[in-house]
Please model this.
Amino acid sequence: MLESIKMRPSTPVYTEGFKRDDDAKDENYGKKIADQAEKDKKRRATILLQRLIRGRAIQNFMFEGKEKRLDLISELRATEEYKNSSDMAEEKNLIEVYQERVLDGVSEAIQSDIISKTMDNLSKELVRLKQERRIAGMVRLAEDVRRKREAEESGRRQAEQILREREDVLYQELMSVH
Model:
């Protein structure tokens, strides 16, 4: 009774050399696994290098931004030091007003930069959309011309076929007479 029950085949066991017990005779299997591992290693190294380059690019971008605004930073630091060192409330109020105006100017500059980039992107998108529509119109026109030519060609073929059939009938009648 137990002999009639079929057992599931044993699960292959993988060894250190990337070979299975069942495929021990197959030498190419280990090479394929090693090649795949090498490709994975290269892919991971490439991804790491890309991440490092992107990170460095962001660092450079931030450094350039800091260098651009270095005068503003030093001005704000100087006004803060002057405000802390002044004793009169009126001077402190004037410095606070000045700092607010500087910060407003910076925020307006940032806003104008963002708005100008957005408008630039929108204008480029508009140009792209107009070109896309123009190309679509040209495609429609070309398809219409192609359909018209196909219809004319179909008409010519049909006319030639009718003419050929008439000639065949005349030829048959002529042959039947002789």
